[in-house]
Amino acid sequence: MVDATETQETPETRPRTNDAPVLEVEGLKKHFPIKKGIISRTVGHVYAVDGVSFSINQGETLGLVGESGCGKSTVGRTVLRLLEPTAGRIKLEGQDITDLSKDKMRPIRRQMQIIFQDPYSSLNPRMPAGKIVGEALEIHGIARGKEKDERVAEIFDRVGLRSSQMDSFPHEFSGGQRQRIGIARALALNPKVIIGDEPVSALDVSIQAQVINLLMDLQDEYRLSYLFIAHDLAVVEHISHRIAVMYLGRIVEYTDKKTLFTNPLHPYTEALLSAVPIPNPAVRREKRVLEGDVPSPITPPPGCHFHTRCPYAEERCRIEEPELKEIRLGHVVACHLR
After folding, report:
1. CA gap 142, 199 in Å, rounded
2. Which residues of 282-318 are buried (b: 16+ CB within 10 A; e: fewer)?
3. How far apart are CA 246 and CA 253, in angstroms?
4. pTM to 2 decimals?
5. What is the bridge-based pairing of β-strands 225-229 and 193-197?
6. Of all helices (H) and strands (E), which one includes residue 308?
7. Segment 41-58 mean pLDDT
8. I want to staple 59 with a disulfide (CB 3.0 to 4.6 A). Which of 16, 79, 176, 216 is the partner?
9. Domains of the chain (ranges plus CATH)?
10. 181 vs 292, higher pLDDT
11. pLDDT 10s digits, 3-43
């Protein structure tokens, strides 16, 4: 959990530089085939992402939350085309990049970077930190030699590392410092969109706050757009402008941060928020305990995927898939009861 007292700045006080969407995702699906037998016959699919749509404006952070296994990380990797989408469209600054070849995607990748969850396994242990950050500059022909080293030193200084540490190897850094290297690597190509795949979940609480505040400062300075994937609602509340809630491969609610936390409309969102501890013993919050387990993404239930655990489910919920519709201005929810 982030200690919000460490900074007075919040997403509401940070101005967004532009309202034009930088990233648009429409009906994104990613189904993994299940193969068996000698001839690897397809016997089914894992419906990891099953029709996800959202947009992110310049200088904005969209938080993507949900239980483990709901498809959050798969969304991030598919948007980056690290995984090929099964269906849907991905647009970067209006350009459709869904079906671009590897060669045509190469310059696009400069505009879209990722910060991985694990700061230990995401860095090559045989490469010094400076080379890890500067490698992309060489690959994309941006800088080499002394010029590259100077640029890497500037980036190190910007993310809170010393240029003298460029020759150190990952094992010589702490967990928080390793994640700063990961942030520096993502920042090196001056991207427009950065996807954070639970970038602080492996860090200590005090270090989480430092890294989150660093990301917010970098966003202001470089006009970055973030897709921030997390399961910790306190972290998402601190950094996000808008939040999308995922359940079993689908977005079930999508609105600005303040509205989501004060007036959630989907039963699943209500249950998630009821589990967030309130740092005030005088305030009581009704607990909404969900019964049963999350259904398998191999055989998701018909109709509303959440109806097997929803305390308000009706017969219609078991048969008809709810449409993601706008209930109020900027507040969309997929629920028959709304």
Report:
1. 26
2. eeeeeeeebeeebbebeebeebbbbbbbbeebeeebe
3. 7
4. 0.88
5. parallel
6. none
7. 93
8. 16
9. 4-111+191-333 (3.40.50.300)
10. 181
11. 444 444 444 444 444 567 999 999 999 999 999 888 889 88
